[in-house]
Write a structure and sequence with these properties.
It contains twelve helices and 34 strands. With 636 residues, it is α+β, with helices and mostly antiparallel strands.
Length: 636
């Protein structure tokens, strides 16, 4: 690709249409909403990429070329040629320079018509209409005629499916069909718009949660529904990321049952808090999980905000924090529409009066702000509607400098449990992982239960001998002592009927009283050597997917130990990797760097009562903080 800059554009010609309108809206209302829209375009602008060319000329080039494109490669080549000919650079294009009264009038008519004819008209008041139906775009994207196209689409959809006149049914339809109509690939990541509009999303047909949510919002708002962009600024127990989903502004609660951040596998909502699609979620019984582990089914949520595009919305909040800018213009807090919440009070010196207190959550690159409150004259900052069962750290950030103003704490339903570093009571830590096991990772183990490990000297296993039947779930590397005195040329793990995903399969023999890994491996069929190479490459990130996983030695050998590993997130302790443990005492303090020589690593004489962070210097970026209780890592 020649062009790697971010671009943003709109295709008027591509999706324009001629529609005859009935005079179905009150003239007074129409004039009022037109005034609202006129005020909006004065206050807003679109990020774009035009330079030394007019918008009209650019639109013509785009629409004419796109009429003939057949596949994604054609689109990529086309963008290269157009951009190269235009000397494109990123500049700002104000809406007022190309949005005219005719466009606004058409938008107003269709908005009012869809809203007033809807079955939810009585539950969606005029202010909600102005904020969440009327706007001609969602944020800072270039304007296109999405409302024309989707108004007609909705009319046809209702005609064929009258049950979708109900808002809940319509919402569910688009969250099921429209939301998942986008692929999760990144073929067009180099051409990603600053703010994708409807035409761009529809053209590339791919995107993550933000693009999917925006697409659903276009469809719902064209139908007169007050669709909102609700988002999580950071997760409470996952790697750093934001997440977006679609809400409805006329609902006082977005979910039938409020989430509790309590890892309840029965209270999961896809695309909100579930770690894996609930259709594939496997709930493990306590006695099926080793005592050192817990399975995390839920992604915990500290805060949920709602974006209002309207320039007359709430006051901006734009303090700069360490490593990130907490800048959510025109946002409102809707956390209690999704979560069971609790309040937290942070106490500090009266010298912090009127300063912003940032309540932050851990990420690998630093503590990230999720909420802000002012210190009052008593030195207290009060935070309302916070997600529970999350570790928070209160800080003050001024001039890019961080001042920790209180201990980290776990917020519970009844208050806060402070985590205080205790040097008088020291503990020994046996660490098995650097990141919790989420259910999407644990699901890889499910088909191992019932598998057999067998040895044989016949290629077709006609003389197979059972070494071990697997009666549990291998969440980590498994070692199996072989009691038989027989020698085997072939070893395999075989599943009764389902695919298993095996990352590594190693065998050891007794060599003068010392276990030696058998490296003399060959395959009778060359094609098998290539296929099964992932089993013996020493890389836990590679794996095979088959009903059976087999290795073949050069000759029969007295196998005394078998080690295998299912497909995983590779966040367990890996021998040879370099790790460093940190504990928190107003800052991260290193407890030392160690090279792992087994599948666990120990640190002795460490202060208790605080939070810990095991960092891997060798590979991987997934790391979370934990507390340590009763010999077990408790993840946050």
């Amino acid at each position: 690709m020649k062009f790697t800059k971010i671009i943003s554009f709109s295709f008027f010609v591509l999706i324009s249409c001629n529609v005859s309108y009935e005079d179905s809206c009150n003239e007074l209302w129409e004039n009022e909403v037109l005034e609202i829209l006129n005020n909006q375009i004065i206050s807003n602008f679109s990020y774009s990429s035009f330079k030394d060319d007019s918008l009209d000329n650019y639109f013509k080039k785009l629409s004419n070329a796109l009429k003939n494109y057949k596949n994604r490669e054609d689109v990529s080549l086309f963008l290269d040629s157009v951009v190269e000919s235009m000397c494109v650079d990123i500049i700002n294009i104000k809406d007022v320079s190309y949005v005219d009264k005719d466009f606004l009038q058409k938008n107003a008519k269709l908005s009012l018509r869809a809203w007033k004819q809807s079955s939810w008209y009585d539950s969606c008041d005029y202010q909600l209409f102005c904020d969440y139906v009327l706007p001609y775009k969602l944020k800072n994207e270039l304007v296109d005629n999405w409302r024309d196209t989707l108004f007609r689409f909705h009319s046809g959809l209702i005609k064929d499916n009258p049950e979708l006149k109900n808002l809940d049914s319509l919402y569910q339809y688009h969250m099921t069909h429209t939301y998942y109509s986008l692929a999760s690939s990144n073929h067009f990541k180099d051409y990603k718009m600053v703010e994708p509009n409807f035409t761009w999303i529809s053209l590339i047909n791919e995107g993550g949660c933000w693009e999917r949510s925006r697409l659903v919002m276009y469809y719902l708002r064209a139908a007169g529904a007050p669709a909102t962009l609700d988002f999580i600024p950071e997760w409470g127990n996952r790697k750093a990321a934001t997440h977006a989903f679609v809400g409805l502004a006329n609902r006082h609660r977005q979910l039938g049952r409020l989430l509790g951040n309590n890892n309840d596998p029965n209270n999961l909502v896809n695309d909100v808090n579930a770690a894996i699609d609930t259709k594939y979620n496997i709930v493990f019984n306590k006695d099926e999980i080793p005592k050192e582990y817990d399975i995390q089914y839920e992604k915990t949520i500290p805060k949920v905000y709602r974006k209002k595009w309207n320039a007359s919305g709430n006051k901006s909040v734009e303090p700069q924090t360490h490593n990130n800018s907490f800048s959510y213009n025109n946002c409102i807090d809707v956390t209690d529409q999704y979560l069971q919440t609790s309040n937290a009070i942070v106490k500090s010196s009266v010298l912090n009066f009127n300063k912003d207190c940032h309540l932050s959550v851990f990420t690998r690159t630093g503590w990230k702000t999720v909420a802000i409150a002012k210190f009052n004259i008593m030195g207290n900052a009060e935070f309302y509607k916070m997600g529970t069962n999350i570790v928070y750290l209160p800080i003050v950030a001024e001039s890019n400098q961080i001042q920790v103003v209180d201990n980290p704490f776990v917020l519970t339903d009844t208050g806060r449990d402070e985590l205080v570093c205790d040097y008088n009571k020291r503990i020994d830590l046996k660490l098995l992982r650097k990141y919790p096991i989420f259910s999407n990772t644990a699901a890889h183990t499910i088909n191992f239960k019932g598998c057999k490990i067998e040895g044989a000297n016949d290629y077709y296993f006609k003389d197979a001998k059972l070494i071990r039947q697997i009666n549990d779930y291998p969440f980590f590397v498994q070692q199996i002592d072989v009691s038989t005195v027989d020698s085997f040329q072939y070893i395999h793990i075989i599943s009764p009927e389902k695919l298993i995903r095996v990352a590594e399969l190693e065998c050891f023999e007794d060599s003068c009283g010392v276990l030696r890994k058998i490296s003399e491996i060959k395959y009778k069929e060359p094609s098998n050597a290539k296929y099964f190479s992932n089993l013996i490459d020493g890389d836990y990130n590679t794996y095979i997917a088959s009903r059976w996983a087999r290795i073949e030695f050069d000759k029969p050998r007295p196998v005394r130990l078998i080690r295998f590993c299912p497909r995983s997130d590779t966040n367990f302790i890996i021998p040879g990797n370099i790790y460093e443990l940190f504990y928190w005492d107003n800052q991260w303090i290193s407890a030392g760097i160690k090279k792992a020589d087994s599948f666990e690593i120990e640190y002795n004489n460490i202060p208790s009562g605080t939070i810990y962070w095991l960092k891997c210097h060798t590979e991987g970026t997934e790391e979370r903080i934990f507390t340590y209780q009763h010999g077990k890592q408790i993840w946050w």
